[in-house]
Structures are given as C-alpha cells and as structure tokens.
Amino acid sequence: MVNKSNTAFQSAAYRLKKELGVSGMRFTERDLSFFSDLAKIGVISSEQISKYHYQKNSKPLARIEKLVEVGLLKRHVTYHEKHGKTTAYVFNDQRVARVFDGFTPKIGNRTLRHEILVSEAYFSSGRPSNFKIASRFDERLYRKFNCHFELGVRKPEYVRAMESVLPDAIFTNSNGEMVVVEADAGSYNRDEVKRKTAGWSEHKQLWVQDEGARAKVSEGVNVKVLRV
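Above: the chain sequence. Below: its structure as tokens.
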C-alpha cells in the first residue's frame, strides 16, 4: 500500500483525478517511482520497466498497459535489425507530463534507440536526482558548453555545428563532479567520437554505446563506457 504521508504521491494522484479525469484507479508506490523516473528521462523501455519498476509483479507490463489504456502513457514500438522489436513508453501528452513536472520528447524510429540508451545511463548511474537531459538544459548550461541559446529561433548551420558538442545529459556524481553523458546508437565515426571526448576533456564522461557501434570509445581516467 502507498504511504499516505507521501505528499508527492498525494498531489500527483489528486491532480490526475481532478485535472485529467482519471478515476477508479488506485495508484501504487511502484507507479509513483515509474512516473518520477519518466519525468526525468522522458522514455523508458519495456526491459527497463521490468528490471527497475515492476520486477515484483508477475506480469510487469500488464500494469504499464493499464496506464496506457487510461490515457496516461503512450506506447512506441520500433524494429531494429540487430535488437528486434523495441517497445518504450512516454507520457501520453504534455498535460499528463506536467502533473509530474515531466515532458513529452519527440520520438521517431531513428531516435528511440538513442533515447533508450540515455535512459540506461540514468539507471546504471543509480538514478541520480540531478540527472538532466539536453532538451531541458537552461541558458546557463548551453553557455557552459559554448552553445548558442535562443528558444523558438531557427539556428544557422555554424551554430548547429557548435551544438554538436552539447552532451545528451549531465548529472553530478557522489564526489560533486559533473558527469557528461553521451549515447551512441552506432552512428558515430572516429572523428566524431574524438571531437566529443576532447570537447569534454575537463569533465567526467559516461558513454553508452550500442554493441555494434562503428567507432568504439576507449575508456580512460575520466571516461567510462557502458556497452548495451
């Protein structure tokens, strides 16, 4: 049973019922844990759900599909030559996302695998509370990585080239050090890997690479690589 003193849970459950008309459903601590993670990273795969959220449920995805049915989540399915069928979940729309201070990412067949790798970085790092993905960076963080920041304005080619050194996410580790997160679903070449690792040389780096990546990142003092 949910601890009723959990104000975050109470607030979210109340808003779901009041603002979105979701009624007749009892939310659990596992639901809240899942929603909390989804609010930070935007996308969670069926494999990650089974491992990190509903592992004690006999049918972990049955609960998630119920959340899809009542309109809280949206399911994305894609097929990959190597990985086969991939299923992942996002908030159904921005109204639902706002209840949990989350967001709805833009997902396509080509980007889903990449976003799942970013999510894997979050889980493998122990779900840091300060984990932030690039789409939620503020002006300070853009400028920290020497990137132009102007919402709603189409950026010229040279600016987009500069932003190619913007990491996929960041977090602060237990030693108070910033960790730069980058996911490679297999498309980077050696020059791109070299440019990115050099651009972040002053920071700790966590790379999450597909096993079939064209250019393998080498581990070092400040570089850790997770192959998925």
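The first strand starts at residue 44 and ends at 45.
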